[in-house]
Write a structure and sequence with these properties.
The protein is an alpha/beta fold and 694 residues long. 42% of the residues lie in helices and 17% in strands. This is Glutamine-dependent NAD(+) synthetase.
Amino acid sequence: MGRAVTVATCALNQWALDFDGNLERVLRSIEIAKSKGARYRLGPELEICGYGCSDHYYESDTLLHSFQVLAKLLESPVTQDIICDVGMPVMHRNVRYNCRVIFLNKNILLIRPKITLANAGNYRELRWFTPWNKARHVEEYFLPRIIQEVTGQETVPFGDAVLATKDTCLGAEICEELWAPNSPHIEMGLDGVEIFTNSSGSHHVLRKAHTRVDLVNSATAKNGGIYILANQKGCDGDRLYYDGCAMISVNGDTVAQGSQFSLDDVEVLVATLDLEDVRSYRAEISSRNLAASKVCPYPRVKVNFALSCSDDVAVPTCMPIRWRHHSPEEEICLGPACWLWDYLRRSKQAGFLLPLSGGIDSSATACIVYSMCHQVCLAVKNGNAEVLADARKIVNDETYVPEDPREFCRRIFTTCYMASENSSQDTCNRAKLLAEQIGSYHINLNIDVAVKAIVGIFSMVTGRSPRFSVYGGSSRENLALQNVQARIRMILAYLFAQLTLWTRGMPGGLLVLGSANVDESLRGYLTKYDCSSADINPIGGISKTDLKNFIQYCIENFQLTSLRSIMSAPPTAELEPLVDGQLSQTDEADMGMTYAELSVYGKLRKIAKAGPYSMFCKLISIWKEICTPREVASKVKHFFRMYSINRHKMTTLTPAYHAENYSPDDNRFDLRPFLYNTTWSWQFRCIDKQVNTL
């Protein structure tokens, strides 16, 4: 009959410019797909070089090495008798394109350039690539000699075309094209394309996965068809975690779902599907058929190959499944943990060091490392040989097998409580108890000697001794004395990260973890070059509200009872003197705003693109039950004043896991000035005028 087609998609943990590793993972995915009977295999976007090459795309070396890998793929017996769809950059007539290269049995069938480029948020594709603007147009592409020698072809089709096999028709989309309002699958489906493919480089954002799933399912619900999506997974060299979720959908229903978070470098989904289901689904949609009768046809590349076999009546096909989404707390538990594991093994360091203060942020960071240890032990238990090999390299023991997360945590995770005369015994006890429960190697130290030495140098040079405000000092003195403590903690964190393992007779150094949340960064409520300055920060893109919910999740799922007292304690920096042994300083009082308010400001500023006046106009409606217009005006002005005064701190922000679309990361995501006119005179006058009117 030739109606049951078997196709494969995958999620690969590719690494930018790791051509050896990327080639191995691509080949392994094709081998797995073939072993499961697939006749077509789809891979992630730009999988040959890795998606995150950034300005390395400008280099001719990146193009050269991509073609060298392609030649290896074409030559490999693994790629025979299966249509392989791989991603790489290609230069055509001196213009660089983001392409799919589709080949079969040492012959390139089509090079399909990306039509709609991603250029918002973390994406900068227009910086490196040009979109293909010639709809349904194909040109000759002259292959480099390294490929000609393998394929025997001089030219191949390059452009916007579809593949016509002996039994069906396939059309490609690339990542952003699914999200575009005029997605190619619409016109392709009307022109008889039955299988749509999408190779993605889509990164994790909290609460985003369902959007991607809904887009894929809706693509085939209206028009019928089979939709296959591949995605990258893991940390490929920067702040993003690509979250897999490879999937296959038929006529609006998901039939195969890949994992969103895992330590498996290669994950392959294979499904057998009935083409007659697509044809019968489409046949009864009269509006679709009327539109199809008028569509402009796509160029078809004929392929003498079938995705089905002739005798397939008894072949079972896949049935719809219910997609399981992670809760936000599960996403925080798993996403940053997988990102940390990739960063640790690929940086070839021996573990992490975290200044553990006994507060929510550093405790949440510690819990994420503990979650990572859980994931490692689980992967080893499930037979993941690569994770086992990486764990052995990290602990420098060729016979080691990580079985207990607490034991593994003690080997690779050092926590450090840095007390001062302003620290309470409560936070010291909380940090110590949490460290015991997760198993980290815990250090307790006091920084007062170093603080007095630094302040003593200043006093010796100037003849003046600064005082805290509770002792009659000015706000300048008070802030300077707090900053000295905070910055000394950073220096000590790096010193202990470099030498702690040396003192324990173990090789290697530790990566320093930061623990400033996204709301504190937005407000600038941190000391520049303090413990927020670290190598990486797993919670820098996560709000305080979400972190509190995550802490509750850890209490329930990891039985970390020490977190209960941390949850109930008021957030504090503990940089000012205690009063009668009790805290006199809290974060929200210091900031002049609550963390809940900060999240609202952050979303309006970044996601809603609101300046001071627009934010005020939105909040007088949102907060009408709790604030007068004058109070809203005061709050908005205070936020923008503090935000603009402290924006310079974002230029040195520790690289953080990207999890929120209101992240203030100045490096790539949130591009703003860092020297503002902090009076906002014109904007604030507009607010005042509106307040008076109201």
